[in-house]
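Technical annex B. To support the medicinal chemistry partners, we prepared a structural model of the target in complex with SN-glycerol-3-phosphate, based solely on the information shown next.
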Amino acid sequence: MDFFLDSTDLEEIKRLNDLGIINGLTTNPSLIYKAKTPFEQLIKNICSEIKGPVSVETVAEDSNQMIKQGIKLSKMAKNIVVKLPMTWEGIKACTELSKINIHTNVTLCFSTTQAILAAKAGATFISPFIGRLDDANIDGVQLIREIKQIYSNFNYTTKVLAASIRTKNHVSQSAIAGADVATIPPKVFNTLVDHNLTDRGLEIFNSDWHKSGQKIL
Ligand code: G3P
């Protein structure tokens, strides 16, 4: 499973990227707004830190504007992925941008029919928002399972990018369901390593080693 960060907080991005296991990053207009940094500078800073796919979203009503914005975004860095909304205009823009080999991420996906449309439009990634589905008392992880089944049935190559991740359980369940990517906010990412039995076990190992009087170095 690829781990992307879902963030525009450069400090957190750098700190977690130092682990050497971050494969990419996603942004959205709300995360851009939170950053309070001029947009183009922010994206350039992020792309100088993250070498994998970095999703940046168009903000337009019609496909022509989305295509123009997408072409401009793709020129900002070679690893830019153009995020498009799950609308008819977004699907049309996805088809056109895919034709000119610009990588795309169709976002705000909440159903299997939407996921089929994205795959048929040549999307590089599809982003089902599992946290927001759970908020609506709909099983978000079940949507991941169903999309993966459909994509397997028809050999679609679009990658399933589990988004709107709220807990480490979302990460593990998405992985079990076969999501290709999980895009994880730093506050959730920080919890992935935690387990009380690990802490307890390490305490015992360290204490027994100390009592043994042995040395490694
Ligand atoms: O990338 C999409 C993600 O940022 C949305 O998450 O928690 O606003 O549903 P959330």
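Notes passed to the chemistry partners:
The pocket of SN-glycerol-3-phosphate is lined by residues 6, 26, 28, 129, 131-132, 163-164, 183 (CB under 6 Å).
DSSP finds eleven helices and eight strands in the chain.
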